[in-house]
Amino acid sequence: MSTEVLKITKPTYMKKHAQMVAVYSFTHFLVDFACAFFMFRIIAGTPNGYLCVLIYNFCAFAMQMPIGIIADRLNRNFLFAMLGCVLVGSAYGLAMLPLAAVTVIGIGNAMFHIGGGIDVLNISQERLSMLGVFVSPGAFGIYYGAMLGADGGFLGFGNLGLLIIPLSLIIAALFILVVYKTRGETYIENAEFSLKTPSFHGVSVMIFCLFLVVCLRSFTGLALDFPWKGTGHTGTFLICAVVFGKVLGGFAADRFGVRKTAFCSLFVAAILFLFPSVSAAGIMAVLLFNFTMPITLWAVARLVPGAKGFAFGLLTFGLFIGFLPVYLGLKIPLQMFWLYALICAVTLVLLIAGLKRVK
Known about the structure:
76% helix
């Protein structure tokens, strides 16, 4: 009898989990697309545009940590994801109030990521591939949202895009609700909230190392400027390298282990970064460098299993820290491209240290 139950329930669990990840991943694309489109179409060029960018990034990334703690305690992840979609869409109605709009859209972005992120962390269990699939579409959303927003159009619809995008987010929120309502026994609740760990000092050091990894990856991704960037289809290839690097990183970690994947990907990326004038080498370096994205998220969540929202938010705070130097104008000169290889080496050391006790 128990064998028959396993034959029936295991495919059901996998199907339900795949549906959740698919809905959250596609909505991730929509949310980041809507945010980037709004920032480039509405905010760019306004008198307070520079300040608005800072406020948006603070709300979207730094605020995920406190929001994550609240979500951990309330155990209503789908509501956070749905409300995030609604807030992002409603910001389009505040276009005449830029400071208020970027605050609302930033908080909406944060709430969606926390809600969806905790759910995917819960159902992923030991599989990093689900995390890679969930986090990766956001890069496509930012890229195409920024591109279409800067062009002033939306797939030929003109200003109608300002209505289509909020409606798409409302539909996405409804899909999240449908998936939640049909979850049955496959839905995994949040663990009881706790920041306690067996060895606070040792775990805090590892978490700090992983936090620094995210800071460095964020800075590198924003500061990176290859001499051939912007020619031909290189922009598309680079964004594909970012997206598929996160996806492949998750699958590779599941297949070969997190430590082998981290070492091999960053070691080879460091070598490839030494040849910045070769486009193929640069694209492969970016792809391999992004292998670490699902690994860091998985590792921190494993270190604080009773606070997955906090873990997710802590790492997005690292994204905000990495954004600040670029926002303030810090750039790496092309003649000092060897620094990217050095960053890879430092990232590898920090990541191995951060994974020391993760099982």
